[in-house]
Amino acid sequence: QVQVVESGGGLVQPGGSLRLSCAASGITFRIYDMGWYRQAPGKERELVAHITSGGSTNYADSVKGRFTISRINAKNTVYLQMNSLKPEDTAVYYCNCNWHPNNYWGQGTQVTVSS
Fold it and tell me: Helix, strand, or coil here: 107?
């Protein structure tokens, strides 16, 4: 049984930092590409950051220079370090595991940036 569980969300002031974690089980984690997505109220889900099984990364333009995605295969975990947070970063953040044709999502964790 595959489980994808996000953690680390919460309420933070503008300019603050959070680190999200995503732990996946039931898959061969090291072969999966991993991604963080977010969905704000009334908006479509969008890609925030992506890391391949080989460690290559890419980011949405809106988070470049502020967010960092990383993974530790020995822990079956991917992270999203978010710095200099802005109110527009407020959203539910979802973790995605992809190894075609397998594609798995977590339940999401809420991130709220507000003073």
Answer: coil
Amino acid sitting at position 97: C
> What is residue 87's DSSP assignment?
G
Does residue 78 contact residue 95 with C-beta atoms inside 8 Å? yes
Q: DSSP string spanning 24-80?
A: EESS-GGGSEEEEEEE-TTS--EEEEEE-TT--EEE-TTTTTTEEEEEEGGGTEEEE
- 70-106 pLDDT per residue, tens: 999 999 999 999 999 999 999 999 999 999 999 999 9
3-class DSSP assignment, residue 104: strand
Give the residue-averaged pLDDT of 27-35.
97
3-state secondary structure of 112: strand
